[in-house]
Amino acid sequence: LWRGASGSEAVSEVLRSSSPSTIWRIVNLNAVKYGWNIAELRLFSDELCRADLTRPRAGSAWTAEAISSGAVSGSEASRAIDGLTWTQWTSSCHLCDPGEAWLGVKFSQPVSVLCAQLWQWGEGDYKSSKVELELWDASMAQWHGVLRGDGFASSQWETLRFVKCAALEPPESALIEVTNKGFFPSSATYSCGGVGILWGTGQRDCSPDGSWTLDAPRCLPAIEVIAFATIAVLVDLLAIALYARFVMYRKPAFLGKDSLIPSEHLARWDSSLIPHDEDDPHDLQGIVTKQCVICPCCRIADSWASAGVLPFAWGMCIQHVSFPCMPCIGAVLRSKLR
Q1: Are 121 and 88 a contacting pair, CB within 8 Å?
Q2: Which of the two ends of the chain, N or C, has the fewest CB atoms closer than 10 A to its terminal CB?
Q3: What are phi and psi of 17, to 5 degrees?
Q4: What distance in Å separates the CA atoms of residue 301 and residue 247, rounded to the nearest whole number?
Q5: 113-131, pLDDT tens digit by residue?
Q6: Helix residue ranges per DSSP H, 210-295
Q7: 47 has pLDDT over 50
Q8: In what order do the strands lie in the sheet with 64-68?
Q9: Is the peptide bond before 185 cis (omega within 30 degrees of 0)?
Q10: Highest mean pLDDT among 51-65, 77-91, 284-298, 310-324
Q11: Secondary structure (3-state) at 242
Q12: What is the pLDDT of residues 20-46, one digit of tens each?
């Protein structure tokens, strides 16, 4: 995260998590025409940029030594950690290619850096608007990028740091597992203990500003799950019973082998076989239309039963038991209807 002259903020790219190292450095990612000038560099062990590692207090367990890719005489690296913004380090390269110039700090023991503050000196040709914070991996003998930021050219303090995600309160009977030690980028995975069922999304992601996406889920206790399931079954049974009472028992007899369908109704599937009278308050077609909205599966079973393909009860059972396979089952029975 960087803070410009107006206090605006932009997101830096997090390359990897911070891990302890004895050497840290800031590298230019833009070409610098007249040598890179840095007035001050500060490294902090916390994301709030308060615990300064570059200026150990008396009695501290570590020491800090400024190092660099090279310096002009009289502008050594030590001048960039002396606490004075009117002294500076100037790189030895005059035309510095991206990644050629760097300023770092060597510590007497491994430290983790979560924030870096930089004050560049001079006009735009002496600055790099893009920088990268890197650590030295002694086991692999190579540098690893940690943070990368853009917009560092305002001749004032600019901050490159990890963003601490907001603290999460676990819902009742729920567990939370947060990745990357709670720093952006991070994700939180929710799970329920016991027999509870997770209601809502099971994962939330940390935003660049430290807030979390989506709302927190909750764990439904077993008693609530049983109550909801019971209500769902009762509503389903009620819908089936109402359809059977107000539709099935009032319809003409189902088709059989000896049933006769008038020729004007044959091959005209947009015609209704049920008498329809809009002025009749007990019109059966109107009742069927309303019941289809309440219980669409009832209407499907009704169609099968009316055509003599399956009894109404069997049609309802098939839809409830084999619901995922309904497209295939419906296609087969529809071919029989035709």
Answers
A1: yes
A2: C
A3: -75, 150
A4: 12
A5: 999 999 998 777 889 989 9
A6: 222-246, 284-294
A7: yes
A8: 13-14, 142-150, 130-137, 21-28, 102-111, 64-68
A9: yes
A10: 77-91
A11: helix
A12: 999 999 999 999 988 999 999 999 999
Paired with 89 in beta bridges are: 38
Do 26 and 159 touch, CB atoms closer than 8 A? no
Angle (deg, nearest 10), helices 312-321 and 222-246: 150
Are 88 and 37 in contact, with CB atoms under 8 Å apart? Answer: yes
Q: Burial level of 286, CB count in 10 A (0-12/13-18/19+)?
A: middle
Helices 284-294 and 222-246, packing angle to 10 deg: 170
Distance from C-alpha of 174 to C-alpha of 154, rounded to nearest angstrom: 47
Going by DSSP bridges, is the β-strand pair 21-28/102-111 parallel, antiparallel, or unpaired?
Answer: antiparallel
Return the pLDDT at 1: 41
Characterize 140-164 residue by residue with b for buried, 16 or more Cβ atoms within 10 angstroms of its Cβ, and e for exposed: eeebeebbbbbbbbbbeebbbbbbb
DSSP type of residue 164:
B
Task: Pick the range with the lowest mean pLDDT from 159-173, 176-190, 261-275.
Answer: 261-275
Residue 12 near residue 1 (C-beta atoms within 8 A): yes
- Nearest alpha-carbon partner for 118 in 47, 39, 53, 45: 39
Distance, in Å, from the CA atom of 139 to the CA atom of 232, rounded to the nearest integer, reads 61
Q: What is the pLDDT of residue 223?
A: 83
Mean per-residue pLDDT for 91-112?
95
Banded model confidence at residue 287, pLDDT cuts 50, 70, 90: low
Taking Cα atoms as reference points, which of 75, 18, 83 lies closest to residue 54? 83
> What pLDDT is attached to residue 105?
97
CA neighbor of 78 nearest in space, from 57, 107, 105: 105
Q: Which of the four pLDDT bands, split at 50, 70 and 90, describes residue 10?
A: very low
CB atoms within 10 A of CB 177: 10
